Amino acid sequence: MQLKAEPEMAGKIVRCPGCNTKLSIPATIGAPPPPSGLPPPPDGVPATASPPPQDASAPGEQPGSHQEYQESYQQQSARGGWEEADPANANIFAALGIGLVLTLTWYGILYPFGVGKYGDPAASTLDYIHDLFYERSWVNMLETFFFFFAIAILWLKGKKLRHQKDAMYLDVLPTDFGQEINGQNVGSFVDHLYGLPGRLRDSMMVNRIRKGLELFEVRQNNSEVNTMLQAQSNIDSARIGGSYSLVKVFLWAIPILGFIGTVLGLSQAIGSIDLSDTSDLDKIMGSIGNVTSGLGTAFDTTLLGLVLALFLNFPISALAKSEDDNLNNIDAFCNEVLLPRLNDGGGVAGGDTGGLMDTLVKAVANAQKEFLVDLNALSAKIKDYADNLDKRAASHQERVDSEFAMTLNRMREDLTNAVKDSVKTTTEYTRALSTGIQGLNNVLTELGGKQILIHQVKKKGWFSRD
To answer: Cα–Cα 20 to 30 A to 141, which of 9, 107, 399, 465?
Structure first.
């Protein structure tokens, strides 16, 4: 198997992407001179380097890979392609299992940091984080599971992307068969693709080049090969874009769950208000404590949802960019290496230049038309998604604001009425006390202006005359 290497990798020890065997890149790497009549290779195209022959007893060598190479080479006469695995979509059941394990692991890590009883104020930052995931509501647990489920999907997609990048090191169009690809040697190039290791040949780049060469072998028309390669590029792009559907659903659902938790917390806070007996201060303080607990649950669920959505957005964007870059590299290889080497024998001198120009114009017009149609459709979908998200966010925010305002107004009215009743009762008591004091003052005043005569009555004795 021949591999490609950049000039700056000369003399280094690397691992083969096919069989994982260590090999040494030759110290001198140089691209062969281009043949006359063909344009020079574009900048950035890696040079071709063949691994040095290795002894059969070399450590780390895997004979199975060489045996697979020989068996696949013996089956070159029976072409028919190979079963293509999905290059972008992750296994949902595997991601579900990984997400569940990660969620349980995360809760197991946080469990020892819980301090105090349920509902007690957090004693430290770790205790607050423990309470945030354990004591708020089931909404936070579901948000955490969705987050790790999405992370598992992205991890599996990253493994598929690494596989696609490993296939980029293959020398799929070796110059040993010729500098140009024509009707006489195209079969050798196709057979070479069938002889590649099965793990690496099932990739977007090898599959696209194989389909292009097989079409060229039958039709020997550069324009048709170019059209097919463009169509295959659109298919790969749509497949990669569709692989993010479930992850985008999680990215949307996590903050929505946060808003649902907010509504539940506010409902809990409103339901815990009890001002039936305003004379019992302990009961009033307990009711206020339940209100603050419900408000804490409401705001913590929204906080966790927004934070998890923020953390999830970064790996999604990074992985999407890496997949787009890999797809652009495949398109660049097909446009800059494969198509210039195809020779269908229809030169300008011996062919119909008018028909060639008409074909080119039609091809460009059709490609531009398809691009504009796809762009308009994509723009409409993005606009619809954005409008729906804005409407839902605005609706949830209005509901939260209205519920919060109603709760505050009700609390203020209840407290105001309680204070008014207390003031009224106190005023009546004070007024009665003032009336009593005023009456006592009047009695004392009347007693102060009069003389009280006290007559002493003589008691009759035993020997009195009366």
So the answer is: 399
Say yes or no to pLDDT of 416 above 70.
yes
Structure confidence at residue 313 (pLDDT): 92
pTM above threshold 0.70: no
Kindly report, residue by residue over 265-291, the tens digit of the pLDDT. Answer: 777 666 555 555 555 555 555 555 555
Q: 235: which residues sit within 8 A by CB, 6+ positions away?
A: none
pLDDT band (50, 70, 90) for residue 61: very low
The CB density around residue 342, as the number of other CB atoms within 10 Å, is: 18
pLDDT for residue 56: 34
- DSSP calls for 345-377: S--TTTS-HHHHHHHHHHHHHHHHHHHHHHHHH
Q: Is the dihedral of CA 41, 46, 52, 57 positive or negative?
A: negative
Residue 201 neighbours by CB under 8 Å, 6+ apart: 82, 167, 170, 193, 194, 207, 210
Determine phi and psi for 123, rounding to 5 degrees: -90, -20
Three-class secondary structure of residue 448 per DSSP: helix
CA distance 301 to 113: 20
User: What is the rounded CA–CA span in Å between residue 114 and residue 96?
Assistant: 28
> Token match 């011996």: residue?
350
Annotated domain spans of the chain: 1-29+41-50, 92-345, 379-413
Pair 300, 264: CB distance under 8 Å: no
**Residue in 130, 139, 121, 410 with CA at minimum distance from that of residue 293:** 121
The phi, psi pair for 89, rounded to 5°, reads: -80, 130
